[in-house]
Design brief:
The protein is of the alpha/beta class. It has one domain: Rossmann fold (3-Layer(aba) Sandwich). The protein has eleven helices and six strands. A four-stranded parallel sheet has the order 1-6-5-2, covered by helices on one side. Strands 3-4 form a two-stranded antiparallel sheet. Helix 6 crosses helix 8. It starts with a helix and ends with a strand. The structure holds zinc ion. The site of zinc ion (ZN) has 8 residues, from helix 3.
Length: 246
């Protein structure tokens, strides 16, 4: 009997995972990260209503400089800047950022990266990008978080725009002990000036795009761009961020 039926139950390994997903979904129904409504098995971490209702910047439709581009005026030269969502305290964008940073929701990050890439690949000013560079986070944070959220976004953008990613390494500081006693801002200040470029890195003449999860004052990016421009004065730099606190 068992032998007779065996053929009917032949499953490829790849077939097993959707079943596993469906079973898990029955036991723990997934909920939308913004409105907590129950999601159908095929939904992304956000329900269709919330996806439609997000605080989109629509910067891709602007013909003049955006508020994000103006943020860098007089500080560092950038070609262009794009942010997908506006960040407002208590809004859905805040929930999305928290989900990305603290809940290991890599799928969400990759989905947003894909959406951003799908928008920008249609725009001629974004067609000559050579490299995506995720804004690095402190290695300790990356270790405890399991990933760098900006790198996850960059992966999604890279997928839909077919542009390679070049990760910046951060050098370990010799003064870690004393740094832990300093304030958070100062500590990051030390770190961001300590990133390393591998010996293979050659960005001469390239158009590089920094990818960040959220831009508020722009100070981190300003510092990174300044440092990169010191080493490669003839590169062009642009910026992509999931969110912008306007
Ligand atoms: Zn929802």
């Amino acid at each position: 009997m068992i032998t007779k039926n065996r053929g009917q139950f032949k499953l490829k390994l790849s077939d097993l995972f959707p079943i596993q997903d469906r079973l898990l979904h029955l036991i723990f129904p997934a909920t939308c990260i913004a409105c907590k409504a129950e999601l159908s098995a095929s939904d992304t971490p956000l329900c269709p209503f919330c996806i439609n209702d997000l605080d989109y910047t629509h910067f891709e439709k602007y013909t003049e400089s955006t508020t994000l581009e103006k943020l860098f005026w007089g500080r560092v030269p950038i070609e262009q800047a794009y942010a997908h969502l506006f960040y407002r305290k208590g809004g859905s964008t805040q929930q999305i950022l928290q989900e990305l940073k603290y809940k290991f929701n890599a799928e969400l990050g990759r989905n947003f990266g894909n959406s951003i890439g799908n928008i920008l690949r249609e725009k001629k000013e974004w067609m000559d990008i050579d490299v995506l560079v995720p804004v690095p986070i402190h290695p300790k944070k990356e270790f405890s978080r399991g990933y760098n959220q900006s790198a996850i976004l960059a992966e999604g953008i890279s997928e839909s725009m077919s542009i390679p990613i070049h990760a910046l390494g951060l050098k370990k500081s010799k003064h870690t002990e004393s740094q832990t006693r300093k304030g958070r801002f100062l500590r990051w200040d030390n770190v961001k000036n300590n990133f390393s470029l591998s010996s293979q890195t050659n960005w001469d003449g390239k158009h590089i795009v920094f990818v960040d999860d959220v831009i508020t004052t722009g100070a981190t990016l300003e510092s990174l761009i300044r440092t990169v421009l010191e080493k490669y004065p003839d590169i062009r730099v642009s910026v992509i961020s999931l969110a912008f606190a306007a």
